[in-house]
Amino acid sequence: MQIYNLKKQEKTSYGEFWTARQRQSHSIHHSVSYRASFKPELPSYFINRFLEKKGSVVMDPFGGRGTTAIQANLEGHTAIHNDVNPLSLFLAGSRQEIPSIDKIEKKLNSISLDENIPEEEMDEELLNFYHRDTLKEIKNLKKVIQEDKSPEMNMIALAALSRLHGHSPGFFSVYSFPQFSVTPQAQKKNNLKRNLVPEYRVVKPRIIHKLKRDLKNPVPEYYHRYSANNMYINRNAANLGLDGEFVDLVVTSPPFLDKVDYNQDNWLRHWFLDIDTTATAAGISIFKTVNEWRMFISRVIREAAGVIKPGGYFVMEVGEVMKNGKVIPLDETVVEASRDSGLEWFETVVNVQNFTKLSNCWNVSNNTKGTNSNRCVVLRKY
């Protein structure tokens, strides 16, 4: 239903515009988890609503795990994926070309993970997560991934990333959190609390099992035609370095104040891919105040406005956050930040839904902590 608050001149739509049910989208989206990422149904809704023909250009300045880029390719569009974290570029770029499971399995079977690792290279802290023989296999795979950048090996590396830590026997680690990497000290405490000792878990079968689930749905025949033209950028979202008005649609979701530390949460994945954590931490934006966040978002919107075509749309998904005991609806802040940007406020779309299992897991309830609603501010370049 449409709600117009004439006093505030608001244009807001409330409803269930996309499903709250889990894993309803293409299986390739579920290759890896990533904290604070939105559901593929969100960009799909706006892609189908605002793009009339295939071959358009869809951009995400805060690319995360690549949800917008991959959904754009699945629906017949080219994508521009940007993120300041190099891990994000791998998560998205590794699915630019998706080989058959037969080719991937052949590649995996051709490599050996049995080479002995010198004792001084075993990383004692990692033994809080892994059995010594499992860690040996992980380290051997890590070496191969550094040398082999083929599409098949990229998919193997992606599956391995998703199996590094979790709460079931399908993961390489002893019981841990799947969404983010806890510290070795926290894992050690967890092991003592649960009376756990890492057991040997063979790496290859777990990778293949995961990949068969991820690739159970074939991508459309046109997928690679559009993904071949994707751009992957590793820059601050307020300084993309792009020229010209060629983007049809932006769908993105920025970091929300200081709610998530993307660098610390992914330290084990950074280790596996040899990403410099220190350099990455320096580039990731974490904001302590709403005013700092608003000023940054204002710069991001202006940067995007410079590359969006006339008539194109900019969609930013935010939520409500609790700060100093007060609920802050960030969509209003985005509208404020868009003033004099070259983009005009078109509407705000609020997706009304029940909380997911993950929200309940983190004890997120309405207006109490974290982000708990999809509030999408839509801007247009007239």
* CATH level 3 topology of the largest domain: Rossmann fold
Mean pLDDT across every amino acid position: 89
- CATH superfamily name of the largest domain? Vaccinia Virus protein VP39
Number of strands: 11
Fraction of helical residues: 25-40%
Report the C-alpha radius of gyration, rounded.
Answer: 21 Å
> Which band does the percent of strand residues land in?
15-25%
Structural class, from secondary structure content? alpha/beta
As residue ranges, the low-confidence spans are 1-9, 356-371
Whole-Å distance between the termini?
A: 25 Å
Main-sheet strand order equals 1-2-10-11-7-6-3-4-5
Q: In CATH's first tier, which class of the largest domain applies?
A: Alpha Beta
Question: Per the principal axes of the C-alpha atoms, what is the gross shape?
Answer: globular
Note the total helix count.
Answer: 15
Our count of domains comes out at 2
What composes the largest sheet? Answer: 9 strands, mixed
The succession of helices and strands, N to C, reads: EEHEHEHHHHHHHEEHHHHEEEHEHE
Account of the protein in words:
By secondary structure, the chain is α/β, with parallel strands linked by helices. It folds into two domains: 2-97 and 220-267 and 279-380, 3-Layer(aba) Sandwich (Rossmann fold), CATH 3.40.50; 101-214, no CATH class. 36% of the residues lie in helices and 16% in strands. The protein contains 15 helices and eleven strands. It has a nine-stranded mixed β-sheet, with helices on both faces. A two-stranded antiparallel sheet has the order 8-9. The longest helix has 16 residues, at 132-147. The protein is globular.
